[in-house]
Amino acid sequence: MRIDIIGGGSLGLLYGGKLAFAGNEVRIWCRSMDQVLSLRTEGLHMTSVENLDASSVGPIRIEADVMDHFTEGWKRDPAEWIFLMTKQKDVEYIGSQLLAKIDKSTLKATHGMICYQNGTGHIELLNSLLPQWHIYSAITTEGAKRLSYNEVFHAGRGETNFGQVIDEQFQKENKNRRESENSLLYELRKAGFTSDLSNKIVNQIYRKLLINACINPLTALWRIHNGELMATQARVDMMRKLFLEGTAVYNASGIYWDDNLWDQIMSICVSTSANTSSMLQDILEDNPTEVKWINGSIVTLAEKKGLVATYHKSMVELIQGMSTKEG
């Protein structure tokens, strides 16, 4: 299967490397030519906590190019699936300047695009920019850290679910898409990812949103790995305050959440204990974070119901104050 991965960050390298190692034709579209040259000359190397499945993909088994060449590359050789694995801040540019310029007649060559962004708002944006595309949302709890341009550390195993945020009529009209979706599921599982297709992806989007909102900003503020959130009662108590405020907003908004969601959050802290959250990584590299799409989404939901999400609003303000690049 031919798969385009837009974004050479931690998850892009992890998925790209494992899918290529499992025998798929993978192209990784990177931000910098330095990363492209590294992948082209040295290949891609993967390690893990257990170090039992350390593996490498040689340069002849994986392709790489810069993102701005994507439209041109697509015209020559379209892929069956696209994985959009950039940060939220890049979604509008990629959607409007790269993907929207693809000749609509070539879209029949692809089965769809799967979006791995944290937070909310990007699916609605992409649907408006790309009305003829089949756009999926992916929710993953895989933990990864990019060590260099062509090295990635698999910090914690998780699950990946994807599905379309579409109405019932559209779903009925596209039942024939199941075969292509199942083929992708097969390749993901063969590559070692615990994966499934979900018809309740909206519930999972909001589940992941609250998980990220409770974990990511605190790891960034305290500059600690996920597992260190469990080290003191004060840290757990702060997570709990974010959790309770978030579930109160969900209740007011009519958003479903699992009864054992708090236990799930604790479990994720343990299973990804060595992981550096994406928000902490952004802070350490002085890059803009996704806090306004994560905790900020909960603040917006609260405001729509006449509520104030004090703790989540504080997270947005504190994180945005840590970098001069925050918008």
Query: Which percent band covers the strand fraction?
Result: 15-25%
Q: What best-fitting shape do the alpha-carbon axes yield?
A: globular
Instruction: Give the CATH architecture of the largest domain.
Output: 3-Layer(aba) Sandwich
- Main sheet characteristics: 8 strands, mixed
| Highest-level CATH class of the largest domain | Alpha Beta
What is the strand tally? Answer: 12
Structural class: alpha/beta
Count of all domains:
2
H/E series = EHEHEEEHEHEHEEEEHHEHHHHHH
The overall average pLDDT, rounded, is 90
Low-pLDDT residue spans? 167-173
Into which percent range does the helicity of residues fall?
A: 40-55%
* Gyration radius from CA atoms, angstroms: 19 Å
Number of helices: 13
Question: What is the oligomer described by this structure?
Answer: single chain
Superfamily (CATH H level) name of the largest domain: NAD(P)-binding Rossmann-like Domain
Across the major sheet, the strand order is: 5-2-1-6-7-8-11-12
